[in-house]
Amino acid sequence: SDVESQKERVVTEEEWLQKWEMGNIGFHKEQGHPLLQKYMDVLLNGKSGLRIFFPLCGKAVEMKWLADMGHSVVGVEVSEQAVKEFFSEHSLPYCEEPVPEISGAKMFQSTSGNISLYCCSIYDLSSSIVGKFDGVWDRGALVAVNPCDRQRYVSLMVNLMEKNSSYLLVTVSYDPNKHKGPPFYVPESEIKSLFG
Ligand code: SAH
């Protein structure tokens, strides 16, 4: 079936790093995502000073939007190049430190302290390291995760969520027979069974 055709496909971390090196990052939106503008109220619920998580963050400019609104932003991204480009493209000074709990991982934090980007695999994180979140912006994240890792990804995300939190998920509708992904095809029925 259509979905079967993508199930076995795996994109390695090395391949993601290469995409960044080659500038093969068609997924990046210079102007940010219009759907976050549209649903910002759903994410924030009128509250201030929230902790917002950006899984598989790339150099998403929406992180800057939320930080500028006074929220505290945490992202995770395997590509150090992406993380450094985020800070330099917004002229944000930052410092860099190791993450004691994760060997080889680094945390890049804006000097102002409200944006912390972990450079490691999302599967290395846990709530004991990054805490829990009031909001999640999942764009190009679940749909970029290898189909075989979806359950693990979702279990982690659910674990990182505070009780009264909001999760905005962007998916892409297309014919999975015509494109091998990513973004991968995630049918609505699967989203329902993954998140319960
Ligand atoms: N959310 C971003 C980027 C989407 S592309 C945006 O909206 O622009 C997916 C990103 O996830 C890539 O930058 C890739 O380098 C990163 N990535 C892939 N696998 C990862 C993993 N296991 N842990 C952390 N980041 C990962």
Describe the SSE topology.
Blueprint: H1 4-7, H2 13-22, H3 34-44, E1 51-54, H4 62-68, E2 72-77, H5 80-89, E3 94-98, E4 106-110, E5 115-119, H6 127-130, E6 133-139, H7 150-159, E7 161-170, H8 188-195
The structure holds S-adenosyl-L-homocysteine.
Keywords: Cytoplasm, Methyltransferase, S-adenosyl-L-methionine, Transferase
Protein name: thiopurine S-methyltransferase
EC number: 2.1.1.67
The Cα radius of gyration reads 16 Å
Query: Mind telling me the CATH class?
Result: Alpha Beta
CATH fold group: Rossmann fold
The name of the CATH superfamily reads Vaccinia Virus protein VP39
Bin the helical content. Answer: 25-40%
N-C termini distance: 24 Å
Going by helix content, strand content and strand pairing, the class is: alpha/beta
Overall number of structural domains: 1
What is the topology, as strand order, of the major beta sheet? 3-4-5-2-1-6-7
Roughly what fraction of the amino acids lie in strands?
A: 15-25%
Mean pLDDT: 96
Low-confidence stretches: none
Give me the strand/helix succession.
HHHEHEHEEEHEHEH
Q: How would you characterize the largest beta sheet? A: 7 strands, mixed
Shape: globular
| CATH architecture title | 3-Layer(aba) Sandwich
Associated small molecules: S-adenosyl-L-homocysteine
In total, how many beta strands? Answer: 7
The helix tally amounts to 8
